[in-house]
């Protein structure tokens, strides 16, 4: 009988811990999306400014590890050509990647100047955009780590509480 209660106690704690792990994984996926978008922006800067390649060539050459990032960058190509509504594009990024709004706004700034400036100016603007995106990502990362640590502590306490109540 004691083995059954001990097993249920431990199983309840582990179950609650896994629930909070899935909550933390959501933030980790957001971080991964931001990192890849940042990597693509840096890749864009290098190949467009130093190698003088077009956006389409860069898009085709880049090795995307996430299909959602590929879709966002493909849509960016259309937005650069058509100069449509930035508001709709920022909503599209938010719905697809779930990245923070200030990070998305920094990325969308590329629409304002890409294709209309020279290599040196474009290089400087893309470097500035990358720095701003990194700052936004690091700010989110600090908040995410704090939330993650809090969730880990809460999950252990809630798991123990749930196990005690059930047993």
Task: Give your account of this protein's structure.
By secondary structure, this protein is an all-alpha fold. 86% of the residues lie in helices and 0% in strands. The chain contains seven helices and no strands.
Main traits of this protein?
mainly alpha, 167 residues, elongated, 7 helices
Q: How much of the residues is beta strand, in percent?
A: under 5%
Order of helices and strands: HHHHHHH
What Rg is obtained from the alpha carbons, in whole angstroms? 22 Å
Biggest beta-sheet profile? none
First-last Cα distance:
11 Å
Total count of strands: 0
Shape: elongated
The number of helical elements comes to 7
Low-confidence stretches are: none
In helices, the fraction of residues equals: over 70%
- Please tell me the overall pLDDT: 87
The structural class is mainly alpha
What's a quick, concise take on this entry?
By secondary structure, this protein is mostly helical. The protein has helices at 2-50, 55-61, 67-82, 86-97, 101-108, 110-113, 119-166.
Q: Secondary-structure blueprint of this entry?
A:
Layout: H1 2-50, H2 55-61, H3 67-82, H4 86-97, H5 101-108, H6 110-113, H7 119-166
Helix pairs in contact: 1-7, 3-4, 4-5, 5-7
